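User: What would this chain look like folded?
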Amino acid sequence: MMNTIRSKQIIAISAVLLLIAFLFTRDIKGLVKPKEETTGVPAASQLTSSANAINLAAVSTAAKNSINANIAAEITALENTYNSASGEEKTNAAKVLADKWDDVEQSVPSALYLEIIANDNKTLNNWLAAGGKFMKAFDTTQDSLISPALLEKANAAYTNAVSLDSTNLEAKTGLGITIVNGMGAPMSGIAMLLEVVKKDPANIRANMSLGTFAIKSGQFDKAIIRFKDIIAMKPSPDAYFYLATAHENLGQNEEAVAAYLNSKKLAANPTLSAFIDKKVAELKNKN
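Assistant: Here's the prediction, encoded as structure tokens.
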């Protein structure tokens, strides 16, 4: 029995790794990454010690090296304005930089400026904005050195948001997701997300997190129910892909094929299409 469970978990992890290798594009967002596997999540103590891993100046330099030179020069000029400003002008300059970095899809520096704004003006919306951007950076970064720090900062931002309004579902959802990803005992994060879904059954973000956790923990039956509910509310290529993964792990190949093809149809992504075509052929040969 244990070998069967372990085998299913290995299949799930393999599917997730393949998903990252082939499908992590701008068209498919929020998919599980290797760092999210239950066996590879950093301990809370490791995360706490990583807070200083992100240096704004270093992050900015690296980001500017990856974007258009003219835009990088424009950002440098905005940074000079920010560095010479004070008080409300400095906060406003930080907002301009956060937006500019977001425009060029550089989530890490954008999140750091939003954090500065939130620390200057500690409002619920400011902390939610910072937390959301740190989670986006965490989801998309390929830098394992700063990834734990991004999660920690997201957790801190959402913690501050919850302290301002303990009934805010966006804050509780974000906090629950950071806990599930390593900022505390996973089950406490699951309990928080379940509470959110109880109050707001149509909360896609909370439901997606619960569904992916079910897959990672080998609870494929629960994952299928969760992703079918999500699809009924808002069909998406990643929800269909996770549904297919859960069906495949249970040996339900026909259902898996149907879900994979729906994922392919909605995404309309060449990389995803090629992978799914291969996956579908493999599953059909098993029948």
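The two ends are 24 Å apart (CA to CA). If you want, I can go into more detail on any region.
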